[in-house]
Structure formats: structure tokens, C-alpha cells
Design a protein that fits this description.
The chain is of the alpha+beta class and 361 residues long. 40% of the residues lie in helices and 21% in strands. It has 2 domains: 87 residues; 236 residues, BirA Bifunctional Protein, domain 2 (2-Layer Sandwich). The protein binds phenylalanine (PHE).
Length: 361
């Protein structure tokens, strides 16, 4: 048998000076492969007498283990080296401008854009966001809002009814407005309240300004001294922010909703004399919302004492706000799923650093 020590020295030296992972693999095969030198030494042990075997056996095994260990270490070294090289080469420069070809893929729908803008504005006014189900019960959609069964206002709403019926809650309906969220949210908390609730609403109606599914945004503010002046300030502040104009004026017209008293129609100042409608200028008025002071019966439905608390509520058509701000004429096109329409009216998430940047670039 060859001198094990010199074999060991020779192999370890070779591993040390290997220049690549391939080199190391070659050494492994040459020494430890099926026909490798160390493999052969091990197989030849059987031919030796017992004494020699006892002495050489452990030595050859040690040699094998040592060589294996060194090979693994060296292989790991080369693996790290390639990884590091790759990391350096593939470094992403996040300061590079986005290629314009990458801008054409996804677009943000005007409804999402406007919703984001509105929630940001009301968020900064201290409003929370409340949510409610699209499939409502007659109780929350009507009764709790001071619209009893025989009330003609139920007919006003062109409601979609389900067959499902509950003896306390009445028939299931697709909610016709976001106002049911008023009662649902007040039931669950304690006054004071200040929240908005955006969402889908449904009415059996379809023409240039109506679609069976549309979006509303409800607002509610309830406290001990909340009054109409607060409502006026809130709506003027919101509309000025949203339309990005300075101090727009609103006009409050008497109206009727069963769940508010007094009830108001909110008009915003506008100019219709030119080819495009201008909000916040001129001497015309444009209806944008329904509002009023919360009816005592609504507060009672939510177990709130109307002798202590009072508040205001308002409801905007979200799609209508998007139409007005971004000049989109036909409401039905919003939901027709036409990709060309979305490319034209949609917003690129990459052009604008935050969703809520609105008109100004
Ligand atoms: N829910 C009313 C509608 O859909 C709007 C509204 C909301 C009016 C809140 C007053 C107060 O027409």
C-alpha cells in the first residue's frame, strides 16, 4: 500500500489549488468515485491480513472523511462566489425611470381613483370608514331609516327584491342606498360618530345617467352639538378639496328624505356657459348630494337618545363625482368593461406616485 500520508498531502494540496467547482468535482471522482483511488484502497483492505486491516482500516477511513470534508468546503466556497457575483451583476437600480412601454398594462378605474381621493380627504377630516353588506334586509334598508312599510318612498327606490324572508327583518333586498350603514354602524358603537361609508348600491334603472349598479358614499357625523353649520362647512371643504378649487360655495335647497329632518339637496356652484362645465365658478348650480340632520327616529333605531345626540348625514353618488371631475359623459360606459375606455379614462399606477393625487400632476 502506498504511503497514506503522502497521498493525503497530495490530495489536500490539489483541493486547495482547485480553480473551479468543476476542478473539485474532477478530484472527487478521481479519488472517491467508483474507480477512485481511495475507493480502491478501501476495497483492497479485504485482501490484507487481520493485523494490517486493523491498522490501515481506520487510517483509510479517516483519509476518506477528511478528503470529503475538504471537498465539500471548497464546493461551498465556489457556490458562494457565484452567488455573490450574480447578486452584484443583477443589482436593480431603483432610481432608473420606468420604461414607457411598461405603463400601458394595468389601469386604475376612475371609480377606484375617485374613491381613493375621497377617503383621503375625509380621512384628513377625522372620518373613519364603515362598511355594510350589499344584500340588505328591508329592516335596515327602510324601516330603521324611518321608512315604514306603507311609505311611498319605498316605491321611489325601484328595489331589487330576493325571495328570502325573515319575520323580523323582512325580505332581503339589494341595498338601494348606503344609508343602512348609518344604523348598522351606530348600533355597534358609542357616540360620537364620524364616518363615511362608500360602496355599491342597486336600483332597477338604466339610462345615460343611471345604471342598475352604481356607487354611493354615505357620511355621518353625530355628537351632542353637531349642527347644520357643521354640515355646510364639511361639504364645502370636501368639494373644494375634491374639485381642487379654492373655497367653492354650496347652496342648500329644502328637500325630503324620511331619514333626515330637515332634508336638503346640495348644489355646488358651476359655470355652464362654456363648452365644458366648470365647478366652483360662474353663477349656476349643480346638484351633487342629498343631506340633512339625522331624523330622531333613526337615532332611536340605533339606541341613541335623540334628546342628547344629534347629527348630520349626507350621500353622494360616487360615479357622478367621477364623471364631473374627469369629464366622463355616459355613466353606462363605467361598467361595460371596455378596455379601450379604461385605457382612455383610467389612471396609471406608475404615472402618479400616490393614487390620490387627483387632477394636478
Ligand atoms: N340615501 C339618500 C339617497 O340615496 C341620500 C341621502 C343620504 C340623503 C344621507 C340624506 C342623507 O338618495
Amino acid at each position: 500500500m502506498e504511503n497514506l500520508n503522502s497521498i493525503k498531502k497530495e490530495i489536500l494540496q490539489k483541493i486547495k489549488s482547485a480553480e473551479s467547482d468543476d476542478n473539485v468535482e474532477e478530484i472527487r471522482i478521481r479519488e472517491l468515485g467508483k474507480k477512485g483511488r481511495i475507493t480502491k484502497l478501501l476495497s483492497e483492505l479485504g485482501k490484507l491480513n487481520q493485523e494490517e486491516r486493523k491498522k490501515l482500516g481506520p487510517e483509510i477511513n479517516d483519509l476518506k472523511n477528511k478528503v470529503l470534508e475538504e471537498i465539500e468546503e471548497k464546493k461551498e466556497f465556489f457556490l458562494d462566489q457565484t452567488l455573490n457575483k450574480k447578486l452584484l451583476e443583477e443589482k436593480v437600480d431603483v432610481t432608473l425611470p420606468v420604461k414607457s412601454s411598461q405603463n400601458t398594462n394595468g389601469r386604475i378605474h376612475p371609480v377606484s381613483q375617485v374613491l381613493d381621493e375621497i377617503t383621503e380627504i375625509f380621512g384628513s377630516l377625522g372620518y373613519e370608514i364603515a362598511d355594510g353588506p350589499d344584500i340588505e334586509t328591508e329592516y335596515y334598508n327602510f324601516n330603521a331609516l324611518n321608512i315604514p312599510e306603507s311609505h311611498p318612498a319605498r316605491q321611489m327606490h325601484d328595489t331589487f327584491y330576493f325571495d328570502e324572508f325573515d319575520k323580523d327583518q323582512g325580505q332581503s333586498v339589494l341595498r338601494t342606498h348606503t344609508s343602512p350603514v348609518q344604523v348598522r354602524t351606530m348600533e355597534e358603537g358609542k357616540p360620537p360618530f364620524r364616518f363615511i361609508s362608500p360602496g355599491r348600491t342597486y336600483r332597477c334603472d338604466s339610462d345615460q345617467t343611471h345604471t342598475p349598479m352604481f356607487h354611493q358614499i354615505e357620511g355621518l357625523s353625530v355628537d351632542k352639538e353637531t349642527n347644520l353649520g357643521h354640515l355646510k362647512w364639511t361639504l364645502e371643504t370636501f368639494l373644494s378639496s375634491f374639485f381642487e378649487i379654492k373655497n367653492t360655495k354650496i347652496q342648500m335647497r329644502p328637500s325630503y328624505f324620511p331619514f333626515t329632518e330637515p332634508s336638503l339637496e346640495i348644489d355646488v356652484l358651476c359655470d355652464r356657459s362654456g363648452p365644458v362645465l366648470k365647478i366652483g365658478e360662474g353663477s349656476d348650480w349643480l346638484e351633487v348630494a342629498g343631506a340633512g340632520m339625522v331624523h330622531p327616529n333613526v337615532l332611536k333605531s340605533a339606541n341613541i337618545d335623540p334628546d342628547i345626540y344629534q347629527g348630520f348625514a349626507f350621500g353622494f353618488g360616487l360615479d357622478r363625482l367621477a364623471q364631473l371631475k374627469y369629464g366622463i359623459p355616459d355613466l353606462r360606459t363605467f361598467f361595460s368593461g371596455d378596455i379601450r375606455w379604461l385605457r382612455h379614462y383610467g389612471f396609471s399606477a406608475l404615472d402618479i406616485p400616490t393614487l390620490s393625487r387627483g387632477l394636478k400632476k
